[in-house]
Amino acid sequence: MKDILTCDKRRMEDRIFTFSKFGDAGNGGITRFSLSEAALQARSEFTKRMKTLGAEIVTDDMANMYATFKGTENLPHIVMASHLDSVRNGGNYDGVLGVLTGMEVAETIVKEKVPHRHPITVMVWTNEEGSLYPPAMMSSGIITGKFDKATMLASKNPDGKTFGEALKESGYAGDEANRLNPKDYMAMLELHIEQGPVLEAEKKDIGVVEGVVGMVNYRIRTYGQSDHAGTTPMKYRRDALLAAADALKYLHTELDKLDSELVYTTGEIVCHPCVHTVIPDLVDFSFDARHKDPEVIKQVVKVIESMPKEIDKCKVEAALQWARNTITYDTELVNLVEKNANLYGYSNMRIYSGAGHDAQFAAEMLPTTMIFVPSKDGHSHCEPEFTSVENCLKGANVLLQTVLDIDKK
Question: What is the pTM of this model?
Fold first, then answer.
């Protein structure tokens, strides 16, 4: 271990502390919506620190930031990328840790005068969370052709302001020619907290991420009849909420018969008219199912679309909103991450991500992979989100060595 280059714990701790102040929500977490004042403060700090180290910084038309340290040869860039924006009352690690560890890897290379042939870029994606201007992963979706730019620019926040207006006001909109692309970049790495309990439960330091699981997202709607809560006998009712509850129970019962790694969630429910003295006539709820095996996802779709069309005398509909295929990361890069975790003596395991990341879109454009570090108690997208600085440093070390290995190619 004495001869292996390592990152600096003190610097890592300082970055986490400093960036936690931008959008501090007062309870140990942050609210830092993309292109908000807090996000612009974080971008300014990123710019200051990277320029101090000698980086050249450009932005593209979606305000994605690229801080590049020149290599000794005119070769494609190696990029470490993540995001600075958060959900409302989120934590200090989701997204931002990938930027902070990228900054630390760059500083280690500069301070230790490590020669590198390829330019090394630390990148900040714009609007990964989509918290104020949906959808999530907006910029990477545009760059990889998943989303229409004009449609995305028209996305509005609750006050009616468009993302395009916020982009113009930010001062960070640059040239489309600066976008991440497969000609000028040879590989992308994204370090991230796991956002789940597996690594901690298995006592692993590093998650070697093989890919991102596929998913389907449905809206399930039940249609009943509104009537008075006090005067309508039970046997005459068409209660849409009762039907929705039984529909959800049906889905859980049937999907529980499939694979143990399948996860599914209802996180949003709309009930109409939502009056305590009125029987609901419409319930509309989300249904999100995820698994890495496409065949299991096909079985999920079959269960959902075979659900009874009438439950509790109420009409039932299932409408697919969107879906994504399982993404498998570049085998060579995945193997390098595993090799380097072992090189440092860090316990590790292969893992798939259940959450979406900009890296999954980038993976269809150039060789890409991710590195996971544990999330305490599995918490994420909430203020208790936490990863120890020791684990952050371990992730940074694996990221560092992986970048240096890629540079040898």
Answer: 0.91
Query: What does the longest C-alpha to C-alpha distance in the chain come to?
Result: 82
* Torsion of Cα atoms, 226 then 231 then 237 then 239, to 10°: 50
Residues 183 and 310 in one domain: no
First to last CA, the chain: 24
Main-chain dihedrals φ then ψ at residue 13, nearest 5 degrees = -65, -40
pLDDT tens-digit series, residues 147-180: 999 999 999 999 999 999 999 999 999 999 999 9
Span 39-68, pLDDT tens digits: 999 999 999 999 999 999 999 999 999 999
Nearest to residue 130, comparing CAs of 178, 81, 163? 163
| Residues 96, 226 within the same domain | no
Q: How many CB atoms lie within 10 A of CB 286?
A: 15
Q: CA 362 to CA 188: how far, in whole Å? A: 8
Can you tell me which residue has the tokens 């698994």?
291
Give, in degrees to the nearest 5, the angle at Cα 80 between 79 and 81: 110
Tokens at residue 231, please? 């005067």
CB 346 within 8 A of CB 352: no
Q: Which two tokens stand for residue 37?
A: 């004042």
Pair (269, 376) in one structural domain:
no
Q: Which residues pair with 156 in a beta bridge?
A: 162
Specify the residue for token string 């990341």. 357
Contact 357, 370 (CB under 8 A): yes
Q: Which residues contact residue 120 at a Cβ distance below 8 angstroms, ignoring those fewer than 6 apart?
A: 68, 69, 71, 77, 78, 79, 80, 105, 106, 109, 403, 407
Q: List the domain range (segments joined by +) for residue 297.
A: 214-324
Residue 2 lies in a domain: no
Task: Tell me how many domains the chain contains.
Answer: 2
